[in-house]
Amino acid sequence: MLEVKSLSKSYGKKKVLENFNLSASKGEVIGLVGENGAGKSTLLKILATLLKEDSGQVLLNDRDYKKHYRSLRQYIAYVPQELALWEDLTVMENMKFFENLSKTRRSKEELKSILEAVQLKQDDKRVNQLSGGMKRKLNLAVSIINEPKLLLLDEPTAGIDLKSRIEIGGFLKKLAQEQEVLIIYTSHDMNEIEQICDRVVIIGQDDFYRNLLHQYI
Ligand SMILES: Nc1ncnc2c1ncn2[C@@H]1O[C@H](COP(=O)(O)OP(=O)(O)OP(=O)(O)O)[C@@H](O)[C@H]1O
Ligand SMILES: [Mg+2]
User: Fold this and answer.
1) Of 14, 88, 112, 204, which has the maximum CB count within 10 A?
2) Which residues 6+ apart lie within 8 Å of 175 measured at CB?
3) Residue 145's Cα: distance from chain center in Å?
4) Which mutation among 9, 18, 40 tests ligand 1's pocket best, with the greatest number of atoms within 8 A of CB?
5) Separation in Å, CA 31 to CA 108, 110, 112, 182
């Protein structure tokens, strides 16, 4: 479903991605690990069509990003490392706002059931009154309104308590299994990666993660 071929990206003289390759199928959950600055967010931004590679190729369902990035966007959802929500609006108002932007029409009941799926029940609460973990859940809920085929998550569980972490993990696994969404997400928590992911992809040159991975497999 997703083919990344020989992808390279530099910022000025700094090489971040060098001939990176990845092949992934629908319904897979892939954990992307690597040290700070290894290029995880850079890769996700390229896969989200928000950043252009210097060289290499990305194909989604055999369609080249370079030619089809506009039409491919409707199948892709990206949750950035930083939260992107309207703080003064309520949970449901945020859902409605993003539903309006999306091509898929969703009823209030459907929006509610998405919130329930991520275990967020505070529909009427303003975002600025939510905890960090609840905001992350809302960010995730907002991203799947559009029923993406490829879901890219940049540290969706950073700074989240264990209970919410497990809830989010369970939700992602179910989404991949039941709706065949390809999920690629980054985390610094190897236990979590081991529990949720079908496969781990290491990014960057540091052998630390390669060695660490042997302890988990
Ligand atoms: N817009 C930019 N301009 C210049 N350099 C950048 C830019 N964005 C990222 N970088 C650099 O590219 C490298 C990779 O950054 P990236 O954010 O992809 O890493 P990361 O693996 O996501 O790190 P972290 O685990 O800290 O989130 C870093 O050295 C960073 O400083
Ligand atoms: Mg990052």
Assistant:
1) 204
2) 144, 151, 181, 183
3) 14
4) 40
5) 32, 29, 28, 11
pLDDT greater than 80 at residue 197: yes
Local confidence band at 217 (pLDDT 50, 70, 90 cut-offs): low
Rounded to 5°, the CA angle 16-198-161 comes to: 80
Where are the chain's structural domains?
Answer: 2-83+148-216
Distance 39 CA to ligand 1 centre (A): 6
pLDDT higher than 70, residue 206: no
By percentage, how much of the chain surpasses pLDDT 90? 68
- Closest CA relative to residue 49, chosen from 26, 74, 86: 74
Q: How many distinct helices (H) and strands (E) make up the chain?
A: 8, 9
Residues with CB under 6 A from ligand 1: 11, 16, 34, 36-42, 81
- The best mutation among 7, 9, 16, 20 to test binding of ligand 1, ranked by most ligand atoms within 8 Å of the C-beta, falls on 16
Q: 143-182 pLDDT, tens per residue?
A: 999 899 999 999 988 878 888 888 889 999 999 999 999 9
| Residue closest to 154 by CA, chosen among 182, 186, 128, 129 | 186
Nearest-atom index, ligand 1, CA of 155: 27
Please say whether the structural domain 2-83+148-216 has been given the CATH code 3.50.50.60. Answer: no
**Cα gap 44→182, rounded to integer Å:** 13
